[in-house]
Amino acid sequence: MTQYAAPGQPGSVVAYRPRYDHFIGGDYVPPVSGEYVENVTPVTGEVFTEVARGTDADRARALHAASGAARSWGRTTARERATVLGEIADRVEEHATELAVAETWDNGKPVREALVADVPLLIEQFRHFAAVIRTEVGQVEQLGRDTCDYRSFQPLGVVHERVPWTFPLMAASRVLAPALAAGNAVVLEPALQTPASIHVLLGVIADLLPPGVVNVVTGSDDHRVPSGRCPNIFFSDVTAQRDSFLDKALEGFAMFAANQGQVSTAPSRALIQTAVYEELLNLATIRTEQLRLGDPLDTDTMVGAMVSLEQRDRVLAYISRGKEEGARLVTGGEASGHYVQPTIFEGDHRSAVFADDVLGPIVSVTRFDDRDDAVKIANETAHQLGAGLWCRDVALAHNVGAELLAERVWVNNYYAYPANTAVLAEYRRVKHLLVSYSDRAQGYF
Questions:
Q1: Which residues lie across from 152 on neighbouring strands?
Q2: Its Gene Ontology molecular function terms (predicted)?
Q3: Confidence (pTM)
């Protein structure tokens, strides 16, 4: 067990400024309005810094700075950009503990998650896209005997993105890494609930980038986090043996509480086959009750604080609603300060408690009879960003996974997130250079 000192206390690996302005054009500049917003850590509920309140005037300044920087950054070679991205990855790795603690203090997630998932994935994003652009080449298509289509990639210019409060640093890297790799300049707007950790990241990497290539405007509260009631399906053969696979499946069930359930792909609906329903629900309840709720800066803590009191209240209102509608509260349901116990409901899959998602540590459990029943129940909620599937029968798992509506299906695991090369296409355009090397007229006129 490691207990990290809170920022502001002796021995802390993170030091915050009392106040953060916007980061525009390579420098910190005060907000046009002169207004600032207090930043509260959900770990203790205390104000620990304040950030500039962003307005349209601040965004305009940032976009102007990014536009100027984009012209020169977009002209750099892929090798030059790859080198910078690699240097960013190395620098982040050197400051991994500092960034993990900063993320925990800002978001409330357990530092163990930030250390083993958030920061390593941040590093992986930059290394992945550095490798991709260093090795890729354009394309040439022979359109005719005398004409070729030379295809190359060009940046869009400026990328303006809002960063959700669920994974502040990791979400920022999913924009920064591919956007910078493609040759764009970036304007980021972190969520009002979690604006501070991005400033710690800037302190680590800003000197590696030309001024204006990355800009940050804080203090915007219009950050809607997409959500969906993602199903997590457990077939009866999961309990065929009391072995490591069963233990892994139970861990997969408990993933509904990862990051306090504040994940758009959280497995917040659990479907268990009727033949083993009581047995597996009992084992899953035991595993859930073993999750340690507490100080996020303690590496033994498994479930930390809700990102804000507003979010906590949304979760508690949802728990009350579930009870009123007749869902059985299996375990959890209590709260203290920013902290909510991991909570299991069970009931009919047609009830409202299975339809809504509030981004909290809650899972609703129901039963299914066979594979067709499982697919039917799982697909009742159309907006699914993810789904889990647990089964020892590989053929069954493959066939059921193909029928689920979810954009991403994890089979016998949950939350493996590789860097996605296809994302690059969102941050650049394909340039076609159509070249004729014939000196003869084509005869159109």
A1: 431
A2: oxidoreductase activity, acting on the aldehyde or oxo group of donors, NAD or NADP as acceptor
A3: 0.94
Rounded CA separation 193/308 (Å): 7
CA distance 222 to 314: 17
CB contact set of 226 (below 8 Å; sequence gap of 6+): 264, 385
How far is the C-alpha of 420 from the C-alpha of 364, rounded, in Å?
A: 31
Measured CA to CA, the distance from residue 316 to residue 30 in angstroms comes to 38
Residues 6+ apart with CB under 8 A from 144: none
* 169 HSE (CA, 13 A, CB side): 34
Q: Which of 210, 174, 189, 207 is nearest to 71 (CA)?
A: 210
Residue 60's CATH number:
3.40.605.10
Same domain, 236 and 284: yes
Residues 189 and 252 in one domain: no
Q: Are residues 34 and 162 in the same domain?
A: yes
Measured CA to CA, the distance from residue 437 to residue 432 in angstroms comes to 16
Identity (one letter) of the amino acid at 276? V
Q: H or E stretch including 316?
A: helix 309-324
Separation of alpha carbons 225 and 223, rounded Å: 6
